[in-house]
Design brief:
Length: about 500
């Protein structure tokens, strides 16, 4: 197994040894697109194509949905304990193939190899968690009169569609596929065209673990040509979507035509609330990690620092020094921070920064693009901190999805709460304080689906995740995520 950075560098110029698939995964095997078309995936660290994959369309989607509908009859009747064994074997296979998956994720998404390895480990843990939940789905009994018996039971919702984003391809695929399969549903997944490979490899490992053919299908291609036909297909019973508010709105309109149920995770503009009595050094590290991990391309990134005024100057100065010390580079070289995912994403982020500069914003650090120091190529942006901005500023209100932290100065905890809630998003929030009572008051009153106290990104697969307001609805992860793929049937019978 490759574990040292130097042994990974051959993949900078040649990814053939990874054996990346080129076709869709349908009916338990890789298949070329019906049209015969392909497209390429870029390595963001070099700004160059490194592999080709199938460019699917509505015909391929129809094949995949048909396959999953046929397989549903088998999988939903598979004993829950056996479903659990398949998922447990999948977790073990992910761990056994972890380095191959991590390298593919690194090349596809641009994130540092250490972060990619963590994502792969998390995917294995996700399958492990839901493997143990397969035979724990229990209904309820109802307190009816003595001559009646009433109870409820969970049933799989059916064929589920999964639209997987480019920022966390294997993590997001796992957190949707695993509970869907645990509940007895079948899966048709469409990974982002920027990052197709780990979803395909995951489907292959599921089959190796004993999943019947057709239970998990993966179709690659663009959102317009493959994603739109998938969410609009009348054979789909549920859609799990992770992406932007604008695209999510289009997905919801397509779901409405067929009255298809859905879970929507639509991003955020999450506040990190720092009070005067925080643990200074620990909070500095957490605030930096919250925004600069994966170059800020995380729906739940802590992209707004809401900080009490008494420690503002000292804290922002120290944070700026930490940001300036962050190393940039290709993910396989194990830098502190890798590139953003594409030229399009880089230019979008720079547009936000240029407009802020025109408005007179002060940059504590960064603010510009920065090419790969080894090759002069790739889509890199300096770790950026923008000084105190008013709450109606674009940098405060809009999701940038890059390594850009906007500071908001608060007079006190009450003002900090107001600032934390001042956007249309409500995905997550962080609170840093030594005052237990204040921490929980803020956690209670901040409008977000999840609140971290004194550790950003605290928790794991056990903790439900999802947003409020325009961050979406429904929950993934935890047992709540499992219930998303179930429908409840109530049965009442007269027995005298």
């Amino acid at each position: 197994m490759l574990t040292q950075p130097d042994s990974l560098l051959k993949y900078l110029t040649d990814a053939k040894d990874l054996g990346l698939p080129q076709g869709h995964f349908i009916d338990g095997e890789f298949k070329a697109a019906r049209s015969g078309r392909t497209m390429h995936s870029e390595d963001p660290g070099r700004g160059e194509a490194f592999a080709n994959f199938a460019r699917g369309d509505a015909d391929d989607i129809a094949d995949a949905v048909s396959s999953s509908r046929k397989a549903l009859a088998v999988w939903r009747k598979t004993p829950p304990a056996e479903r659990g064994r398949v998922l447990a074997r999948t977790a073990e296979l992910i761990r056994r193939n972890s380095e191959r998956l991590a390298i593919a994720e690194c090349l596809d998404s641009g994130k540092p190899i250490g972060e990619a390895r963590g994502d792969v480990s998390g995917a294995a843990r996700t399958f492990e968690y839901y493997a143990g939940a397969c035979d724990k789905l229990e209904g309820s009994t109802f307190p009816l009169p003595s001559n009646y018996v009433g109870f409820s039971q969970f049933e799989p919702v059916g064929v589920t569609a999964h639209i997987i984003p480019w920022n966390f391809p294997i993590s997001t695929a796992a957190r949707g596929m695993a509970p869907a399969l645990a509940a007895g549903c079948t899966v048709v997944a469409k990974p982002a065209e920027q990052t197709p490979f780990t979803a395909l490899l995951l489907a292959e490992l599921l089959t190796e673990a004993g999943l019947p053919a057709g239970v998990c299908n993966v179709v690659t291609g663009t959102g317009a040509e493959a994603g739109a036909p998938l969410v609009a297909h009348p054979g789909i019973d549920h859609v799990t979507f992770t992406g932007s508010v604008a695209t999510g709105g289009r997905v919801l309109r397509a779901c409405a035509d067929n009255v298809t149920r859905s879970v929507m995770e639509l991003g955020g503009k999450s506040p990190v609330v720092v009070l005067n009595d925080c643990n200074f050094d620990s909070t500095i590290a957490n605030v930096a990690g919250a925004i600069f991990e994966h170059a800020g391309q995380i729906c739940s990134a802590g992209s707004r620092l809401v900080i009490e005024s008494a420690i503002h100057d000292r804290f922002v100065e120290a944070l700026g020094k930490k940001a300036k010390a962050i190393s940039l580079g290709h993910g396989l070289r194990s830098p502190d921070m890798g590139p953003v995912n594409s030229a399009l994403q880089r230019d979008k982020i720079l547009g936000f920064l240029d407009r802020a500069r025109d408005r007179g914003a002060e940059f504590i650090s960064g603010g510009r693009s920065s090419p790969n120091t080894e090759s002069g190529k790739g889509y890199f942006i300096e770790p950026t901190i923008v000084a105190n901005r008013p709450e109606d500023d674009e940098l405060v209100q809009e999701e940038i999805f890059g390594p850009v932290l906007t500071v908001q100065k608060a007079d006190d905890a009450e003002h900090a709460l107001h600032l934390a809630n001042c956007t249309r998003f409500g995905l997550v929030a962080g609170v840093f304080t030594s005052d237990f009572s204040k921490a929980h008051q803020l956690a209670r009153d901040i409008d977000a689906g999840q609140v971290y106290i004194n550790e950003y990104f605290a928790g794991g697969i056990e903790v439900p995740f999802g947003g409020n307001k325009q961050s979406g609805f429904g929950r993934e992860k935890g047992l709540e995520g499992l219930k998303s793929y179930c429908k409840v049937k109530s049965i009442a019978a007269r027995i005298d």
